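G., before I forget:
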Amino acid sequence: MTKKQFVSIGKLLLPSLQGYVVDGSIVFRPPVGHTLSGLCFERRETADSFYLWVFLMPLCIPEDHITLSFGKRLGGGSHSWEASSRELIPSLLDAVDREAIPFLEGLETPGDVVSRIQNLNLPKDAFYRYEALGYMLARCGRPKEAIANLDRTIELLGDGRAGRCGIMVDRGKVTCVPLGPRPEWEKRAKDRAATLRDRLINDPVAVPLLLGSWEQESLRNLGLLGYR
Amino acid sequence: MTDDTVSQLTAAAGRAADAVGEGEGHAYGSAVHSAFQEEVDALGDSSLKTEQSFLNGKPVTYGTKDSVRPDVTEFDGQGNIKAVYDLKTGGATMSAARMQQIWEAIKVVVPIIVIRVP
C-alpha cells in the first residue's frame, strides 16, 4: 500500500471525522497543538492490506517519527483491512465510529491528555507512560506531579544491563547472550528527562519555552509545522 | 513463554510451509513468513501480536527507520512483553547482533525464541 492509496482511503473517512485532514498516512485535526491525535495507516508486507491505528502522541517529547505507545489497532490485536474488499469503507467507518471517535474525544487540553494516559491500560513499568505524564504535567503547570513521573522515568531508563544476559532458545537449546551496553536512545531519553526535571526545580520560568521548543522540533520532524 | 505457545507457533509454521509448498531463497522465506503471520492471526490469541514494529522502546509503524519487527510478540494481561518469536526457514540462524537489536528496540530483555518449520 502506498501513501497515495492511504490518502484516498483516509479522505473517504472524513465524513465521520469533522474538521480532520489527511496528510500522508495520518488523519488528524488541525491546528495541532500540544498533542497529535488521530488515525494512522500502517502498511503490511502483504501488498493489499493494512492496519489502522487510533493514537495520541504528546509532542513535547521530541520525536522524528510517529509513536503508537498510546493507541490501538482498530478491530483489535492483529486485525488488518483488505483494500480490495467491497466492504472496506463501510467497515472502516463503523470501526471509526465505535472505536476511534470515543478514543479521540475530550483531548482538548494537556490536562485531558494526562487523564487519558492515566486511564489507559498500559504496562506498569512502561517508561513511556511516566515520560509522557512527566512532560505533559510539566506543560500543565503541575510541577510536583511532573517531577514524580520524571523520577520514575529516569529510574526506568537507568542502566540495569551490566553483567546481565538475555536468553535465546533455538531447537530446544537455551543460549545466554551477554547484553551490550545501554543503547544511546536510552541515555538521550534519560538525559532529557533529567534536564526537564532540573528546570522544573531550578528555573521553572524556562519550562514552557523548553517544552515549546521540543513541540516545535517534533512538528518539524514530522513535517507538520504547517498545521500548527 | 510457555511450551504451549511454542507448540502452537511451530504448528502454525508447519501449516504456513505446507501452504507455500517447497522452495528456497529470499522469496520463499518471505512467502512462508506471510503465511505464518496469517496462521498466527487466525489463532485469535489476543496475547500474540504479529507485525508489531518497535523503536526506542515504543511501538511504531512498519518501515520506521531503524525499527525492529519481531515476527510475533507475546504480551501478558497487563500489556508487558513476555517473549518474542522469530520464524526461521532452512538453516538460518539468529545472530547476536540481531538479538541485541531486538532487546534495544523493545527496551525489555525477554526470551527470544526461534520457531522452525517442523
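The first helix of chain A runs from residue 3 to 13. Residues 168 and 174 of chain A are 6 Å apart (CA to CA).

More on Monday.
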